[in-house]
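This follows on from our talk about sequence and fold. Please put the record directly below this note.
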Amino acid sequence: MPTRTKLWHRPHKSHNNKQHIYFDLQYGKGAENRKQVHTKILIHSKYWGKKGLKRDHPNYRTIRRAIDTYEDRIKKGEDMFYANDISLEQFKLYVEGKSDFSGILKYIDTEIKQTRKPVTYKDYRSTFLTFKTHLGLKNKPMKFEDITTKLLKDFKRLYLATNKSNNSFNSVVDKIRAIYNDAYENGVVYNELKFPKRYKLPKTKTEWSVCTYEEFSKAIERANTQLEWESLTLWLLKFCLRGFYFSDFPLLSETQIQDNADEYKTWCIDKEMVISHIRNKNISRQSDTMYIRIDKYPTAQLFHMLKYSFMLRFWNTDNRDKVGDINDRLSIFRYDKNNYLDAMEFHSSNINSYQKAIRRVLPNHPMKSARKCFKTIANSYTTRRIADILIGHSSDSGLNERSYNDNDFEDIVQEVYNTHTLVLKRFKASELCQQLQDKLIALSEKNVVPKWILGWCLETSKEGIYLFDNAKEEYDEKYKDYFKNYNDERFQERAKVIDINKKLA
């Protein structure tokens, strides 16, 4: 039965009373055998006749090509439908261009890409390519029907032969199953993907040794590049923020500051900033808000240095839009990796660069270990419940399920504050921050970074070490567009200034 091309009866007032072209797929009697494919092609009814689009339409060729695209899909889809390779629903999806059932990768690049967040699409795509590579099928197309019990067993054997962890294996197969079952829900395949018994492996616990002050101090001494210095600064900042994830930074801004709220006055004794924060990992589900203190030193200073270092690397590139606002104290990176594919790709590339850099100077303590290190030290000072609160972990405790800024639990609030302070002192975070400032000066003397950036990066410590004169006057001309919007009135709390040339002499 031929498909009929029609003009939708209802004009769109918002589109100057134009009407949609749609295709009526009727392959048998009854409503269950009928599907409609509505296009985005809009025309006035005067350009539509018994034979379809009239040639006197001013954009006839363009619209004709768009219609031809749909009609080509209909011809190919009919062949698959009559061969019982696809259902009528699958036929409809094929004509809509939402799915191509010739291969799994094509499905990922159409349906998954259109319906999932960019970060999910990218993750699923790279996982599927990993899956194919380990099976020796890197350059061969795979269909959904190729995923059999035997194939899954082969993948398990081949993947684990490369000494990959149990957790890594489980992650890959979970995502393959998610892709397959997404296709099942869309009517592309007829059965869910179920694993054979005992196919998945027991979880393995990742063990990291706890970084010490001495190790981190030596890592600072070893840093010879701006990226190595920046990766260490970021690691220490994550530690000072009670185990921040890297994914928590891109959307962080001053809008999260809660420094004027009455409920924080009892424990922000030095008028520190406090941010209200929900971990990026938990943003899509209900989760307690974390209230994290940002000390003026070292935490705020680490933010300050990272902001300008990152700007120095990326302002004069195609990624200048990823640089944080100069007047936002907490904005280092600025992008939404969850909803934009280019941001997701930049995010992945950026964190990979940091990971490689920190392995060179701090080989036994990757970026994510800052969180583990903070938690381990906290455990030596307080209860497990308080330590969980500090890093934003859920707990079986009813008290932990409540927000710890609640005035009814002032003792918990105070314990969180005190433990945070003790952990930073135990790790000598202020001293390490000072070393990072000294290292930046040393890098400028070697021309690794320009000396003018010191005036923007370096602040006084609690001990009153250094600020540079003319800090807000010196910069390379090619960064002018970034610095021109600086609002000096927002940052008046400045320590005594010394001559930059004397310090560098």
In short: The mean pLDDT is 82. The chain has three domains: 4-96, 104-185, 213-427. Residues 60-82 form the longest helix (23 residues).
